[in-house]
Amino acid sequence: EVQLVESGGGLVQAGGSLRLSCAAGGFSFDDYVMGWFRQAPGKEREGVSAITNSDGSTRYADSVKGRFTISRDNAKNTVFLQMNSVKPEDTAVYFCAAKSPMWGFRGSVLAPDEYEDWGQGTQVTVSS
Predict the structure, then answer these.
(1) Is the pLDDT of residue 79 over 90?
(2) 36-58: per-residue pLDDT in tens?
(3) What pLDDT shows up at residue 104?
(4) For residues 79 and 70, is the Cβ–Cβ distance under 8 A?
(5) Which of 100, 89, 93, 97 is nearest to 124 (CA)?
(6) For a surface tag, which of 1, 31, 78, 126 has the fewest beta carbons within 10 Å of its beta carbon?
(7) What does the alpha-carbon distance between residue 123 and residue 38 come to, in Å, rounded to a whole number?
């Protein structure tokens, strides 16, 4: 059974930093593409960043490019999202998700419906 547990969320002032972690278990972590997504109140879930299983290449939403950094530690089965220069519009519940190597991407690696397994989310609130 796939398990994804996010942590590291909280309240931060605009311009500050936060580091989210997602501890994974129950599957061969280094074979999976991992993604970070977020959902603000009244809005649809959106892709923030993704990191591949093979060469560790990354993809970012335009809204976070240059401010957020995704990384993974395959030895610890953990994926991270370093959030710098945060803005009030970054306020959302942040989720990590995993995509099995059994299925190829039909579209964008940042599309939520491409991912099968999800964590419970961690709240990030940015005050102005």
Answers:
(1) yes
(2) 999 999 999 999 999 998 788 99
(3) 84
(4) yes
(5) 93
(6) 1
(7) 9
